[in-house]
Amino acid sequence: MELSLQNPKLNNQIGEDSFVGKTILVVNTGPIEKKFIFQRLKKLGLTVVVLHREKNWIAPYVDHWIIADTYNHSESTKSVGAFIKDNPSVQIDGVVTFWEDDVLLTSKIVDKYDFIGTPFNIAKNARNKYLFREFCNGSDITAPRHRLVKNGDDLDFVAQNFSFPLVLKPAYGSRSAFVMKVTDPVDLKSSYAFVKKSLSPETESALNDGSDIFIEEYVDGDEVDIDILLQHGKIKFACVSDNYSKDRGEFFLDSGQATPSTLPESTRAALVETAEETLEKLGIQNGCIHFEAKFSKNGPIPLDINLRLGGDYVYSYIKDAWGVDLIEGAVKIAIGQYIPVVKMIKPKQYIIGWDLYPETSGLLVELTINDELKNKPYFEEIHLYKEVGDPVLLPPEGYEDSMGWVTVSGENYLDAQNNLREALKLINFRVAGFNAGSALGKTQRKTRYSSAVLNKSILLQASKFERIKRKAKDNLRDLHIGVACNNNENSTNPVDSDLTSVGMNIMKTLKERGYKVTFFDFNDVFEAIKQLKDSNVDMVFNVCERINNSSLLEPHAAAILDALNIPYTGSNPNTLGLCIDKIKVKKLLDYHDIPTPNWDYVYFAEDEIDPDLRYPMIVKPASTDNSIGITNDSVVTDEAHLREQIKKCLEISSAALIEEFIEGDEYDASVIGNDDELRVLPLTRSIFKDMPEGYWHIYPFASKWEEGNAYDKIITQSPPKNISKKLESLISEIALDTYNILDCHDYGRVELRVDADDNPYVLELNPNPSINIEDSTPAAAELVGMNYGEFLEEMIRLAITRYKDRPPYHHLQTNIL
């Protein structure tokens, strides 16, 4: 969720007519927090071309897409060239990026296609913080003492020769991610080990450019941002803003900023002069630049040069204070339009932007904004990127910008400060952190570093379950639903086709009802896991029946979802695995006195069979589904035929199950629900009396997957006709007992035989029956007034209820004895 409120007075328009007919190439969309940038670009009248790996949420503001992996610079630069060649009517006038990850790619595009901007050989010295320090040393610009660290010897050198405190940081970092303050030699080694182990582009995408780590001496002093519009080497605008303390113990986080700076005019002038000197010596001539520096006892010291617009509220507070539109300025510079020098005499107002952070990582459990805030004269903007139930990850668990931010104004700095205090009282949030008495607390180790990864995993898990717990029936359609299935569109095998059809129909039906739905094909399990990890699904419909083309691995799909902390419909891996093993199911049914045909099993063809079993008997593979391995010959009447069928079963299964054959009608009893909310849907009856002579009264593979044969004579009734209420109740009770004993969840189908004396016998439970549109379970639900879409939504609701107010893995705490 992104909540944004803005003071109407911000909606001024500046110079839109100057961009009519102009086209800008934007490299990478960045996250959804950057949406305001694209809204502004379109409002300026620009034609917008976006280079990104895929079309996404920003599509309404994009005129043309160039699809390429922006982390693959060669692919991306070639794709830009291909677009230019294939679209001669689209004249790209300039290129910009608003995302740190793509500063270097943008510089390569500048070089390749002769756009205005910073060349790569210059940009790399600004983008890489270590190289920037080295450049400063060689250009008579003050820089902190620093050293690249690659091993223990480098750490020892730093410990012996540098003055503490130190700052450890990645050379290609962004947003203070993995930046740590180090106070002593012992701390130095543990901090380095933590960063070295944790450094990952998955946590901080800017690290795709490199993973070098360096250490520098901590510089004490006032930290500032200098936001600059630079054209042809001349500063057209430069604003110095104060940074509130980023230092939070060993970690650094943006806390807030104020503009204009409260530093003396002479200090601000010295900072701008240092920025100008640094940019000139680097050779940076054009761009919107976010320059970070400190004013120490030794004067100005440059820290970082970001060759793009500053993040979060930088744009809005510069515009509010000085009336300068940095997005407009960045584009004008990129396309070569002249911009005049901005005369900075007196700000329109004083602005403070404030990041909304909790004290520790945790789960957001309360968030309210008093309606009075937006009516306050000092209110400028508020943007919230979290909602109740979301995780908030602060270092070391994670490196998010914040839960959001708010900006306020004032007639002077003190007035703005007072207004900020009042505004923060109108924004209430509470984050449930780690509690030593809770399951979260028990996972912690002796140091925060050692537990950080585990804590993060627990928080992300908790947030998934917290989100679905808060979904009532009337807003289920806010959920992002995944469908775990098997896609066999090119297969001629009827079983494969059915597996594909069920997933596609679920996806189609839920989309029609307004859900966002994503399909995950478990035929490629590694890709499915990767996509699930990267997705933002709230819950998954688990109808996967194959992994590596094996039904034996069906339970592993549920186990993968559990491991990824993703809630799902249907039964847990314990139940799914148990029900594949028909022998174990028989043992449990016997233990609980559930009536089932007399039986035995063998692992080898020559094994003895219980002599008390009576012919006819049916021989089945002990671990297959969809009637695979069952034919008309599976029912045997003598020893020779029995041994022949056992051998055939052992060719496709590790064991063979032998049951006394029950002559009679077959019943399917579909059960839906959990715990006290259980329902047996109307029964389905199969009658075999019209079968031709020579055919046993069973459902072999051919009856389910082949057309135009003797099995078309099977009569099905749903609900059954002319059966006694006593039999109907008995079947329903046995089905419920079986469902509960085997710990089935949400839905399942019990298959039974009824002999001539109306005695029911359980054949098996299918905890993951096909729930395609016309299959028996959805068809039975339709008899009680649920159409297919309503049936699917009922399964979502049942799953949510099952997860609600319980530990995340409650469903694995099986009742099976």
Distance between the termini: 44 Å
- Poorly predicted residue ranges: 8-17, 434-448
Tell me what portion of residues adopts beta-strand conformation: 15-25%
Fill in the CATH topology of the domain at 123-350.
Answer: D-amino Acid Aminotransferase, Chain A, domain 1
Could you name the CATH homologous superfamily of the domain at 123-350?
ATP-grasp fold, B domain
Portion of residues within helices: 25-40%
CATH architecture heading of the domain at 123-350: 2-Layer Sandwich
CATH top-level class of the domain at 123-350 = Alpha Beta
Main sheet properties = 9 strands, antiparallel
User: Helix- and strand-based class?
Assistant: alpha+beta
Shape: elongated
How many β-strands, per DSSP? 35
Number of helices: 23
Oligomer: single chain
- Give the C-alpha Rg: 34 Å
- As laid out across the biggest beta sheet, the strand order is 1-19-21-17-14-11-10-15-16
Average pLDDT over all residues: 87
